[in-house]
Every structure is written in structure tokens, then in C-alpha cells.
């Protein structure tokens, strides 16, 4: 009964046209042109490297795309079990008519060539979006992104702020900020003016969120203007040589100032909590970050209390933090559970985390899923994975365990998949 | 097979008459008189507030009960998915003949009125207890509760000690202690005499447990009499201005002294570990507490070793601490796993935590469930939720996975639901 | 469908002849001679003690084996629910023809006697291994073990190093090291020579791994030769009175030196992370250790980066650390997930942890299971428990959820059960 029911629910959920509330798409080049774009996704390079493929074989400068794919495929045996591998196969089957279950040294080249042909069609981007049932995709824009040359109603700007908070002591970051805003930054006041300008620019271009990823030891707190002024002057003057206390104070001040501007502009502030950068020092590109799961949302207590008018869609990196996310979303009106991030974006963790969210957080405060994709081709299989798990949770825990009708379960599914993205990010639909 | 089996097991388990080993029932007013008593439960007010309902609409002074329910119902859409919502619906269906699946602006008033009528009957309390299959309910009594005016064999006293341990520096608490005991408290010795008097009073009135809730950073340790005397004198003299070290030492001394008296009087000492009070500063009444899940039972190492004759029924707030609870109950003879507390009292967490307990803790050391209820009406649906999950775990993990007979599974179910409450709290049955 | 499928997969997996990559078998006395050897396993004594049996009844000096079993059986009621109890029953049913489901005061003696008779047969060891489908078993050898008197291709040596790292300040340990190596240890250089000698001895005898168990607060780091020399001289001179900083530096130096020798000798270094020793001070033998689950693999960041050529099969004590293990194995080429250790070796945790591993770690980097057994009789039921859970995960999460064929699922099962033990520990097969 449950398997058939899951299938039925999935098919219904799969009809819904979605907006993806977080991705790393480059709107000037959203889709892939060869399989190397797809298989170059860090999920594949890092898993292949983890399974023994030397980094220099993957990242050899000037490597021809086809040769890169050949090398990766040769080393794909060890990762065939992973859910990440299944994303590729599912996409290739659906969009390229790939008929096999594994990519091998015998079948990769034909797929490479036929895929390249398909991807060369003018309508490839449209086709992928349509077949993926995506009508909007949130971006992750550097603060100095001009946000030009693309349709901002399809590719929705989102101000990413890691650099501003954590890397302002680096000269190039400060320079980029000056260039982007035309403001010469000499201290607290000018920095705030620059932030104002960034927000005006982003909001003017249709940005619907501000976002940041945060290390596990970050615990934001208020910093006075005077203390901030000293700290900012010191980090601008001394750069990475500045006193760590000044870097710390400046980071907290900038973070707090961003939250204030989110309040002014009614922008949700996506918090992605828990990543340590560069833990595996010599890993492949984007395959070096890990975490310390000993993080608590209690670290955000002062923030959540201080900014009651700002909605914080919160993502946590580790499933062990999910119950805190459930509880904080259950208590704080401004805390919302947001998707299944990175190392928690695998079925066993999604299933456990999602079940807990759907039974204890108000249904209007759960954002089901975002793809986090770098190329459009991953939207379809990643959302499909999520929708299958959502269907499983709805079937097993609502229809069977709680006696809900299928319709009522689907209604809940629609709310977390689509409705909440619209309402929380204030999309006009 | 499994769904039918679960149903059969549930029906058997649901026949057992139970004693609820932890609640917040007021024995002088145990049942509700209107739906406002039921829907005023913090689970509903805090979820509604979290979903956007302003606090002042919920807690307006002098608000008419019916108007309160009207307002809550108007804002109930967002929480219809929650398990807490299902408790209300299940109770209303069973006890008030409510025929719908949702409480709406169209059907609430008729329910309100018919419920008020039912609840006005003289036998409502008896009816609720009988239909809920509860013959005894543990209370949570302030240390200065006279414990009079009710049947202590039905409503079983339990000495709650948070105030004594953590708030003795507050003048009203010290005064209440003096008033309750008739002892003028000037230092360590008189405080101990007062504690002796409290225990004599509670034990004389049939108390069957001592209980306390503890913040995640508490790590109890022995404090010498001399150090305690200094600390207690200082906190009595300086109140909240006292040196934090003195408050800390006094808290630890009182806690240790309570454990000693539990040993003398052979009372189990319920430890409810992990709550931070007032995290959401402006939340609704009883909807402000959260937690830092970074807590470990290793913090109780000294206590568990020092008081081998005291049974400690331990509740943990977060599911991530459950495995420690399983392991500590498996090793320490005096540690017992107790129910599913608060933020872990939702099906996904109960299921995972219960399965782990039933397969690795001696069956005599698992207390299945307590309701934590404030009004009798919640005993039925909360226990029903637990019994369904217990039936699921027994069906899937014992009958199916381990080949047990249904009878053997039911025997285990009975032990954790009823038998252990009797044996651990020494109830004469 | 799923139950039948699980059964089919289990039957296939159960045909595979295995090598057990971690045990505490004494190769000079690998099998039991009476039920007292089996039921004396700490899992039974500690659970019985936890359920109320006094330690002195279990550990009475000179206690007759049969009387010991009689006493344990009398106290077995409370632990009949545990998975540990089921290991004994399953073995007794399969190997001794035990026909009951419980061991009681009425049936134990007949079993005791018939078992003693069976175990007295010359071929008992062979029979147990054959019926358990084990052809090799890794040992846990003290560093001064002569490794003589047994077949090292069946009982594969493994250098256990806890004493060297954490207890070198104890005079008997230093003396054992001098006796084992013939080197008089006076400082850093002579200690390193002694380590070289140990590795030469172990590798010469066919050792296939180095192993250590580590407390939750250990965070290994590099120590310079000069600092190490001072530290080692001080701990050799002052023993347990030495400055804790010196003990700390020496422990880190020895640990780092062991990793260097693993690199030189191409030995995997098993890290078993998270145990606190002696937490329950008066517990039964081997029933005193617990843990603080607040541990992170980030503590091993420097180690994993420094020793890229060393494979680290990592076991974690608590399931809350499993996701970190999944993620670190997914990123670091030299980190491998190893079995389900001790307090995580129960079905609910194995199932959750295994599912997460199989969907996100390259399949070549998951070592399915080790028995951790002290007597051969436990290999069969412990591996059977794991194989049933593996069959469940493969059936539910691969065949059903992901549409895999049974053959493909079995291939994955074989890899983690057998293939990876061979490849990671470089067994010639």
C-alpha cells in the first residue's frame, strides 16, 4: 500500500511548477554546454578524489572538457552507490535518453556527443527549465554584481554577504566595495553608507533575499558604533594583520548592520549555519569544506530577539542541529526552516529531518527545498529526490500514521514546495 | 502486514489502565471548563504566535474565554499539520463527538458550546480519567504546596525543586521556604533543616518522586558544608546581587542535599535535563524556553556515582542526547530512561529514541511515557500518540525484525507503559 | 514485498565468507569452553548489573563457572528485550540446538551441560568459524605481544597502541616497552627507536593494522622533537606526577609518531574515537566506560591533512557523530568509515548510520562491520544482526526507493562486507 501511495503522491507533487529559492546559477550562463560542466560539479570531483583520483588529474590546467569527462568516468566505479551519482543518471536518462544505469568507459562517449548536441540547441535553457518545472531560480550574487544582462524575474537576485562580514580585512574586498558603491570607506559611517547603497541596488533589481554562510563558532552580537568605528579603521588599515578582536568586532557589526537593512527593506535573511572552510587543505575546488557539528542556535538568541521583523530562513549543515531548528522555528515567529543543506542533502537525513519539521513547525514556516545548483541541469534530479522523500513522509507519517486523506497530504506538500517560497520571499505570483 | 499488526498491538496496549508519572495538573482544578482551558495550553498559543498571531491578541488581560478561542481558531490554519493540533482534534472527536478533521471559523462555536456543556457535568473529571484509562496522575508541586484538598492516591504528589536549587537568591523564594517550614534560614544548617521538613511533609502526604528541570550547562558536584555555609549566607544577604560563584555553590549544595534526602526517603529523583529558560524574551506565557543541545550526561558522572541508592529517572530535551541516555541507563544501575520530553515529544523523535531504548536498556529501566499535561484532557491523545508509536516499534522492530510473537511484544509494551511506573515509583497496586 | 525482499537479500549476503576486521579474540584460546565464557561477556554482566544484580555476585573471586551462569540466568528477565540477549539465543539455537526463546531457571542447566560437551570437541573452534562463515579474524594485540603460537593468517595481528599514547607515564608500561624492544628508553630518540622495533616486529608477523581508542577530548597535533624530548624525559622521570602538559605533549608526540610509522609500513591506522574510561567507577569489569558525545572529527583535521598516505578507518562511539564521519569520508581520501562501535552497535543506530553511509560515501570506503568479540561464538550472531540490517537498508533504500536490481544491491553489500576489508587492509585473497 505505502509504495503505491508514495508513487501517487510523488506524481501529483511532481506536477507543481516551482521556484528554487537558493542556487549558485550564473544567469549569464545558466545551463551546461558539455558533460564536463555537469560532471565538473564539485559533488563529482570531490567524491572521485575521495575515492582515490589524484587532484591534478581532475584540475589539470587547460584540460579539454571531453578528456576531463573521460578521466572522471574511468574513476566513477567507486561512487556509483552515491545519491549524487544517481542525480546525473536520472538527468541523463530523462533529458538525453540515456538508456543505461551506469556511466562506463563503453557508453560515456556516445552520451557526451549526443548531450553536447542537445545542449547546443538554442532552446536548451528553456527546455531544461520547463522539463524541470522551474519558473524561477534564486541566485547567489556577489555584493558587487551589476545584476545586468538577465531577466531578474526568472533569475532572482540574492545578496550574498560572506565577503562583507568575514573578509573585509582583505584589501581586494574593501576595494570591490568601494568600486561597487563609489564610496570611499574610512570607518563605520562610510561603511554603513556603502551597505545602504548595495541594498538600494539589489532591491532595485528585484532581490528577494540576503544570504550568508556562517562558521560553527559564530555567535552574532550587537557592537556599538564607537567600537565598530575603531575596529573597522583598524582592519582597513592593517588588513589581515589586524587584531583578531577588531576583525571579530567588525564582522559582528557588519552582520548586525545587514540584519538592520533587511528589516528596512523587508528582505528575508538566509542564514546557512555551520560550515568550516578549507578543512581539507589540498582538496579539489569547492571540495575542502567540512564542519564541526557542535553548533547551537542558542548562538543566535540575541539576533532573533533583536530583529523580530526580519524573517530568517535558517539552514543547518548537520542533521544533529535539525531538532534545534525545528524547536526554534516552533517558538520564534521570525525563524523558518529552510531546505536541506549540503552534507544533509542526502535521503536518510532529509527523511528524518523533514518528518520532524512537518509534524512540529507551523506549515507556513517550512521551505521544503532548494537545489543549491551551479548549473540548471541539477534542478530536476535534486528536486525529484526531495519530492520522492516528501511523498514518502506524507504517505507514511500523515496518510498512514495519522489517517489523513491524500488530498490533505498533497495540500501540505504544495505549501512547503511552492506556497511558502512565494509568501516568505514575497514573490508576486 | 505491518499496518494491521500495529493496529492490533495498539488496541491491546490501549486497554491498559495507566498511571501518568509526570504532569502539571492542578489537583484542585484538574479538568477544563471551556475550550479556552484546552486551547490555552502553551503548545497552541506558542505555535499560533510563531505562525504570526500577535502575543497581545492571545494574552489580552481580561479576555473572555470564548473570544480567546475564536481568535485562536481564526489563526489555526498554519498549525493544522502539527501533531499538537492532532491532540486536540482527537480528543474533541472522542469526547465531544466532534465530526470534522479541522477546527474552523464555521464549526468552532458549536463545539465550544457543546463542550462547555459536557465539561459542566459533575462527572467530567471522572469521565475523562476513565475514558483516558488513567487511574493515577503524578503532580508537579511547588515545595510550599500544602498538598491538601485532594486525593493523593489519585493525584500523586511530586516535589518540584527548581526554585530551591536555582532561585534561592530571590527573596520571595527564601520567604516561601521559611513560611512553609517555620524555620528561619540563616545558613547551611538551617537550610538543611528546612529541606528535611519539606521532605517529611511531602513523604507524609504520599509523594513518590522529587523532580527538577536543569539547564544544559549544569554539572552537579559536591560542595563542602563550610563552602556552602558561606555561599548560602551570601545569597540570602545579597540576593541576586550575590557573587555568581556563591549562587553556583549554593545551587550545587542544595541539589546535592536534595539527592541525599531522596536517598534517605527512597524517593526517585526525576532529572529533566537541558532547558534554557526565557530564550525568546517576548514569547507567550510558557512559550519562551529553548535549549542548547550541546549537553552531555557526563556532566552527571559525579552525581550518579555518589548516589548509587537513588534512582534517577532521566528525561532529555533533545533527541541527540537520547543515545547517551540509552548508554548511561545500560551501564548505571541507578539511571532510568524517562519518557519523551517537550521538544522531543513528537512522533519522529519518539520513534527513533524509543526504538533505541527498547533494544539496549534493560526493560525494567524504561519508563515509557508521561503526559506533562496541564489539564486532564490531554492525557488521552498524548498517550494515544505514544501507544501508536510503541505499537509501531514493537511491530516493526520486534515482531517483524526479531521474530517475536505478538504476546511477547505486548508484554514488553505493558512493562514500559505500566509495570515500570509501579516498580520504579513504588506504587502499591 | 519489502519483508520478503529483505529475507532474500539476507540469505545471499549470509553466504559470503568474511574476514572480521576487529576483535579482541585471544588466538591462544579463541573459543569458549563453557557458557560462563559466553555469558561472562561484558555485555551480559554489565546489563545484568545495570538491572540490579550486585557486582560481587557476578565477580566473586573463584566463582565456579556453572554457578556464575546460574546466577546470571536468574537475573536475565530484565534484559530479555535487549539485542545483546538475542545474540546469545541465536547462537544457542543454531549451534547447540537450543529450542527455546528464553534462557530460564528451568532450561539453562541442560543447555550448559550440552554446550560444554559440544565445546569440548577438538573441532569446536573450526566448527564455529566455519558455521560463522569467518575465515580470518583481526586481533587487538598489546604492543609487547610476542605474536607466537598461532596462525597469523587466520588470526591477523593488529598493534593496539592505547598504552603507548596515554599510559607511558605508568612505570609498568615503560618497562614493558623496554622489555619488548630491548631498548633502554631515556628520551625522544630512544622511544622512536623502540617504536620502530615494535612496528618491525608486528609487520614481520603479518600485522595488517595499527589501532587505538581515543577519548572525546583528544585533538592530535604535531609536537616538535625538542619539546617531545623534554616531555618524555619528564614523564619517564616523574611518572603520573609529571606535569599534565608534559603528559599531553608526550601523548601527542607518540600518536604522531605512530601515524608516521603507519605511513612507512603502509598500515591503516584504526581510530576508535570517543570513549571515556571508568565513568561508572564501581561498575563490573569492562562495564565502566561511557562517553561525552560532544566530539568532532574537526579535532583530527591536522592529522588527516598531515598523513595523506595513511588510511584511517574511523569508528565513532555515538551516532550523533556519524554524519561527520560520512562527510569526512566523502571529502578526505584517507578517511574510511569503519563498522558500528559498541554503544552504536544496536539496530536502530546501525540502520540510520549505515543508510547515511551507503548513500554518500564512495562504496570502496565503507567497512561494513566488525564483531569486536572476545570469544568466537559472538561472530555469528553479531554479523547476522548486521547482515539483516544491511539487507533491510539495501531493500528499502536501494531496491525500492532507488529502483536498483537485487543483484546490484547485493554487489554493494558484498563490497562493504568483504571486498573493502580485503582492499583496505591489503589482505591477499
Counting helices, strands and paired strands, the structural category of chain A is: alpha/beta
CATH hierarchy, class of the largest domain in chain A: Alpha Beta
Residue fraction in strands of chain A: 5-15%
Percent helix range of chain A: 40-55%
Number of strands of chain A: 11
Can you summarize the main beta sheet of chain A? 6 strands, parallel
Q: Supply the number of structural domains of chain A.
A: 2
String of helices and strands of chain A: HEHHHHHHHEEEHHHEHHEEEHEHEHEHH
Radius of gyration of chain A: 22 Å
Reported by name, the CATH topology of the largest domain in chain A is: TIM Barrel
- In round numbers, the mean pLDDT of chain A is 97
* Strand order in space, largest sheet of chain A: 4-5-6-9-10-11
What is the overall silhouette of chain A?
globular
Q: Determine the most extensive contact between two protein chains.
A: A-C, 43 and 38 residues
Oligomer: homotrimer
The appropriate CATH architecture of the largest domain in chain A is: Alpha-Beta Barrel
GO biological process, one term (chains A, B, C): glucuronate catabolic process
Keywords (chains A, B, C): Hydrolase
GO molecular function (chains A, B, C): glucuronate isomerase activity; hydrolase activity
Protein name (chains A, B, C): Amidohydrolase
Task: Explain the overall architecture.
The structure is a homotrimer of 429-residue chains. Chain A has 429 residues and is of the alpha/beta class. Chain A folds into two domains: 33-129, uronate isomerase, domain 2, chain A; 135-424, Alpha-Beta Barrel (TIM Barrel). The first copy, chain A, is 51% helix and 9% strand. Chain A is built from 18 helices and eleven strands. The first copy, chain A, has helices at residues 2-13, 35-39, 42-50, 55-58, 65-74, 83-96, 108-120, 124-132, 162-166, 171-181, 188-204, 225-238, 244-265, 301-306, 322-331, 347-360, 379-402, 406-424; strands spanning 18-20, 134-138, 155-156, 158-160, 209-214, 269-273, 275-276, 290-291, 312-316, 335-338, 366-367. Chain A is globular and about 65 Å long. The two termini of chain A are 36 Å apart. The interface between A and C is large, with 43 and 38 residues.
Amino acid at each position: 500500500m505505502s509504495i503505491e501511495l508514495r508513487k501517487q503522491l510523488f506524481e501529483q507533487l511532481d506536477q507543481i511548477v516551482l521556484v528554487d529559492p537558493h542556487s549558485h546559477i550564473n544567469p549569464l550562463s545558466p545551463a551546461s554546454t558539455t558533460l564536463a560542466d555537469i560532471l565538473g560539479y564539485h559533488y563529482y570531483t570531490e567524491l572521485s578524489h575521495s575515492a582515490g583520483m589524484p587532484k591534478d588529474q581532475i584540475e589539470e590546467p587547460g584540460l579539454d572538457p571531453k578528456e576531463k569527462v573521460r578521466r572522471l568516468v574511468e574513476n566513477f566505479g567507486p561512487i556509483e552507490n552515491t545519491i549524487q551519482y544517481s542525480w546525473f543518471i536520472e538527468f541523463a536518462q530523462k533529458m538525453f535518453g540515456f538508456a543505461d544505469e551506469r556511466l562506463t568507459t563503453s557508453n560515456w562517449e556516445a552520451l557526451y556527443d549526443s548531450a553536447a548536441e542537445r545542449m547546443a540547441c538554442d532552446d536548451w535553457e528553456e527546455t531544461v527549465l520547463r522539463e524541470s518545472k522551474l519558473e524561477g531560480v534564486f541566485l547567489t550574487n556577489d555584493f558587487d554584481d551589476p545584476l545586468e544582462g538577465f531577466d531578474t524575474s526568472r533569475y532572482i537576485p540574492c545578496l550574498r554577504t560572506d565577503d562583507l562580514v568575514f573578509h573585509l580585512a582583505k584589501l581586494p574586498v574593501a576595494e570591490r566595495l568601494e568600486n561597487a558603491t563609489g564610496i570611499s570607506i574610512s570607518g563605520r559611517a562610510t561603511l554603513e553608507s556603502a551597505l545602504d547603497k548595495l541594498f538600494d541596488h539589489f532591491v532595485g533589481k528585484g532581490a528577494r533575499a540576503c544570504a550568508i554562510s556562517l562558521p560553527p563558532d559564530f555567535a552574532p552580537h550587537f557592537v556599538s558604533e564607537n567600537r565598530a568605528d575603531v575596529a573597522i579603521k583598524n582592519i582597513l588599515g592593517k588588513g589581515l594583520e589586524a587584531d583578531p578582536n577588531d576583525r571579530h568586532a567588525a564582522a559582528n557589526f557588519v552582520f548586525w548592520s545587514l540584519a538592520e537593512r533587511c528589516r528596512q527593506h523587508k528582505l528575508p535573511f538566509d542564514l546557512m549555519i555551520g560550515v568550516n572552510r578549507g578543512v581539507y587543505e589540498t582538496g579539489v575546488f569547492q571540495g575542502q569544506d567540512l564542519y564541526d557539528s557542535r553548533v547551537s542556535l542558542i548562538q543566535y538568541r540575541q539576533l532573533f530577539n533583536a530583529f523580530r521583523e526580519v524573517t530568517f530562513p535558517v539552514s543547518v549543515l548537520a542533521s544533529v542541529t535539525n531538532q534545534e531548528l525545528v524547536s526554534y522555528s516552533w517558538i520564534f515567529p521570525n525563524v523558518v526552516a529552510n531546505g536541506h543543506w549540503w552534507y544533509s542533502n542526502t535521503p536518510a537525513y532529509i527523511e528524518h529531518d523533514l518528518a520532524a519539521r512537518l509534524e512540529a513547525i507551523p506549515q507556513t514556516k517550512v521551505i521544503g527545498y532548494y537545489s543549491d545548483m551551479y548549473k540548471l541541469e541539477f534542478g530536476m534530479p535534486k528536486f525529484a529526490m526531495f519530492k520522492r522523500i516528501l511523498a514518502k513522509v506524507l504517505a507514511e507519517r500523515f496518510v498512514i500514521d495519522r489517517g489523513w486523506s491524500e488530498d490533505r497530504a498533497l495540500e501540505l506538500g504544495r505549501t512547503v514546495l511552492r506556497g511558502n517560497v512565494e509568501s516568505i520571499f514575497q514573490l508576486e505570483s
